[in-house]
Structures are given as C-alpha cells and as structure tokens.
Amino acid sequence: MRPAAGIAALGLLLVLVAGTFDAEPLYVAAVAFVALAGVAAAWVWAAARGVRVGRTLAARRVAEDEPLDVRVDVRVTGFGLPGGLVDDPILPEPLELPAGRRGRRVRIHARFSRRGRRVLDPPRVIVRDPLGLATRVVRGPVADEVLVLPRIEPVRPVGGGQGRDGVRRRGRPAMAAEVELDGVREHRPGTPASRIYWPALARGAGLMERRLRSEADATPLIVLDTRGAQDERYADDLDAAVRAVASLAHAMAKAGGVGVLLPGDRRPTTLDESLAAWTHLHARLALLEGGGRASLNQLSARVGPVLYVAARAPARTPRALEHAPASARTLVVPGTLPGRRPLFTVAGCTGYDVEPARVRAPRPSKGAVA
After folding, report:
1. In this structure, are residues 308 and 318 in contact, taking their beta carbons and an 8 Å threshold?
2. Higher confidence at residue 120 or residue 366?
3. Measuring CA to CA, which residue among 137, 131, 139, 132 is closest to residue 45?
4. What are the residue ranges spanned by the domains of the chain?
5. How far apart are the first and last CA of the chain?
C-alpha cells in the first residue's frame, strides 16, 4: 500500500499548499489524488478478501529428473479482481492474472535434479490495481513437502558382458542366495536326520550333525561408505554413490535377493524378489548425508559377494574387504580408478574387482631344521 499512501500524502500536501497560498485550482488535484489512492486501496483490499489459492501435487515422492504434475488453483469471489500475479516457488517467474478474472488454474510440470527433502512454500496471489498503487498478498494455507528419491539406472558390464562382470561369479549367479556347509558339531535333540553326519558316527566319534551357514550370510551384500563426503564439494560424488547403491540393490533384489548395509546400521536391510522393504530403503537413501561410516563387522561372516560402494575413492582397499571370505569382492567408486580394469559402470560409478589379501607364510627361525 505504500504507493497509494504516497499519493494520498501528496494530495494532503496539495491541500495544505492550496490553503496557504489561496490557490483554489490545487484543491481539485488534491481531492483527485486522495480519491484515487483511497479507491485503489479499497478495491484491492475488498478483492483480496475473496481470493483463495491452493496447490495440488500428483505425488509426494518422485525420483530425480522425473516429472511431477503440480496444479495451482486460484478462485475469486465477491468483487472483481483488479489484476495481479500468481506466484509459486516452482514457477520460473510469476504469471499474470488479468483483471476481471474469476479464477485461474495453472498446471506445472516440475523436475528435481537432486535427491532429498524439498519444502515448497505456499503459493500466493499478488492482488494489485492496474496502476500499481495498492498491492496485497494472499497466501495458500500450508507448505507442501516432496521427497526426491535417487533415480535407478542400469548396470552396464564393461567388455560386452563377458567374463567377471559383476553379474555372474565363478560359474554361478552372484545374486542368488545359498546355504553352504560350515563344518560339523555335536548332535542336538530335534535335529533332522538329514543333517546327521554319519561318517563321524562310523568312525566312533559319536553322533554329529552338519552345521550350515545361514542363508543370509551367502546373500550378496552392498555396503555404502560415505566417509569424507560431508563437504559440499563432494555432494555430486555422494549422490552418484547413493544412486549406484539404489540401482545395484534394485537389480540384485529382482535377481534373487540382496542385503544393503547403510552407514550407522548394525544389520543390513534385506531385499527379496518381492521388494517389500524397497520403499523404506529408497526413502532412507534419499535422506542420507555424508560423513557416516559403515560397520564392516558384517564382512567377516559373509561368503556371498560383497560390493563396497565408497562415496570417495579410498587411498587403498579397505582391509576388511580384502580379508572377507566372500566369493567375490567389488569396490565401487564415483568416476574411475586409473590403472585398473573395470567390471561394470552404474550411475556414474565404476566397479572394480578386489583380489583377496595374500597371507604370507612365517619365515623359519635360524635354528629351525629344514
């Protein structure tokens, strides 16, 4: 209302000048200025009382770069609208609202390029008179929240898909869960006869049973390490690593099952072919921040393939990964590592095979006999 107030003040000033110098013609201009300011302010105030604005989102969750349909509805009742603008945080610039309109519907196709939570301020309508003397803002009732999920990208083997490309390892599917023999132990009452180890009984060692490694230990495991990526400079690398985890987890779950271990978790989240836990895991990946460290204790019991995804390329391969008894070990980093042969690429990251650590035999002492 500042321009209108200025016009009214100018009119009052003219009244004062006209009375001081007995200049009757100035009274006409003074009354015109005061009346113009009053009419503009009253029209805008009355019209704004009848304006209602709301926003409707087609979804509350959307993947990166996926279009989101947004609708902004403006309704006008009572006095005709003198004119104005429709403004929304998603719009690149406000849209004109012509005078006399009883409402307007604006459809927006929004896209978000980065994952995370987005809080959208309420839409607003800026009501103003044609001369711009008076302005009043009408806001929507509440803000809206959108969760932007990391997008899923295909896993592309390097070298035409032949050899050890991260999909098949040592002649068997790396994504299939298995149950493997893990030694024998004393027989426990209630153990099925199929698990009794008969050779031990035949040798007179007593009744023994086979000990099987749990199926979860043989399921492929994806470990995410976000250490060193809390700085804004590495935000792109962190997003790439999160997209790689989401893409690998989704593909491997559909192929038989996978476990995903995020920073701060003591136990991995298990995904099977039904993808029952996928929605919750996908949302956690969208909100994940840098600086967290994954628990590597899980690697000591894993015999299935392990994929270690690092938001920042480590100076050397983690020891826990080298010494893990996994059937296959893969290091996945944003970008590429010079001098190493890649296995696959996914979401701007590259996977490399990790050779197991070699255990050196102890050297014989000087007094030892050859």
Report:
1. yes
2. 120
3. 137
4. 2-149, 156-178+215-353, 182-211
5. 101
CATH 2.60.40.10 holds for 2-149: yes
The burial of 178, by beta-carbon neighbours within 10 Å (0-12 exposed, 13-18 middle, 19 or more buried), is given as: middle
Q: How far is CA 163 from CA 169, 170, 254, 344, 353, in A?
A: 8, 9, 22, 11, 12
How far is residue 148's CA from residue 212's CA, in Å, rounded to a whole number? 42
What amino acid occupies position 239?
A: D
Which of 278, 227, 272 has the alpha carbon at shortest distance from 253?
272
Rounded to whole angstroms, how far apart are CA atoms 23 and 28?
10
Name the band, by pLDDT with cuts 50, 70 and 90, for residue 157: very high
Encoded amino acid at 266, one letter? R
pLDDT tens track for 175-201: 333 444 556 667 777 667 766 777 877
Say if strands 168-169 and 156-157 run parallel, antiparallel, or are unpaired: unpaired
Residue pLDDT, tens place only, 103-156: 889 999 999 999 999 999 999 999 988 888 888 899 998 899 999 999 999 999
Residue 258, token pair as written in the block: 């996978």
Half-sphere exposure of 65 (CA within 13 A, CB side): 5
Single-letter residue type at 214: S
The whole-angstrom separation of Cα 70 and Cα 55 is 7
Mean pLDDT of 35-58: 87
What is the 3-class SS of the chain, one letter each residue?
A: CHHHHHHHHHHHHHHHHHHHHCCCHHHHHHHHHHHHHHHHHHHHHHHHHCEEEEEEECCCEEECCCCEEEEEEEEECCCCCCCEEEECCCCCCCEEECCCCCEEEEEEEECCCCCEEEEECCCEEEEECCCCCCEEEEECCCCEEEEEECCCCCCEECCCCCCCCCCEECCEECCCCCCCEEEEEECCCCCCHHHECHHHHHCCCCCEEEEECCHHHHCCEEEEECCCCCCHHHHHHHHHHHHHHHHHHHHHHHCCCEEEECCCCCCCEEECCCCCCHHHHHHHHHHCCCCCCCCHHHHHHCCCCEEEEECCCCCCCCHHHHCCCCCCEEEEEECCCCCCCEEEEECCEEEEECCCCCCCCCCCCCCCCC
